[in-house]
Design brief:
mainly alpha, NADH Oxidase, 6 helices, 174 residues
Length: 174
């Protein structure tokens, strides 16, 4: 099967990574191939940052402290989910959520354990490097779509590499 097809069809959500170092050449190759994503007038509206070692840990510490300090009902600048879910999306979300938390031994109503698991997003699930990509908040929908294609290229290119690297993202606005 084609490498791209393999990368996409074998993808699964992993929330734990090995601490195996990732070579700088590998990261550079992923970024170079991902940058071939189409974008309106080829303006490539994204900026990327690769973090490792002490710099990565400083960011993890700062972001987790902000996560811990956020007030109940915190309102994100860019809303990822709707205010209320409706079918068939509600059922799909519950099935995936209950499956994930069940594998982790977290039962319904264990809010502190759920929050601790959610917090792991902000430590890159123990991956040795973190990649963060930003987009200028003033750009319009088309640029955000271009940004999404670039991020998909990152994930596919990372998945296609030996060791099946994976990337997740924290969206930052500038």
């Amino acid at each position: 099967m084609d490498t791209v097809d393999d990368a996409m069809t074998s993808r699964r959500s992993v929330r734990r990574f090995l601490d195996t170092p990732v070579l700088a050449d590998t990261v550079e190759a992923i970024l170079n191939v991902a940058a071939r994503a189409p974008s309106g007038t080829n303006m490539q509206p994204w900026q990327g940052y690769v973090l490792a070692g002490a710099v990565r840990q400083q960011l993890v510490d700062a972001v987790q402290a902000a996560f811990d300090a956020q007030e109940p009902g915190y309102n994100q600048e860019v809303q990822y989910y709707p205010d209320s879910f409706f079918e068939p999306y509600l059922a799909r979300r519950r099935t995936v959520g209950w499956g994930l938390y069940g594998l982790l031994g977290i039962t319904k109503g264990e809010a502190a354990k759920m929050k601790a698991q959610h917090r792991r997003n902000f430590q890159f699930f123990d991956a040795p490097i973190g990649m963060i990509f930003t987009i200028d908040r003033r750009l319009a929908t088309g640029s955000w779509l271009d940004y999404g294609m670039f991020l998909q290229n990152i994930m596919t290119a990372a998945r296609a590499r030996p060791g099946h690297l994976c990337s997740g993202g924290v969206v930052a606005l500038s």
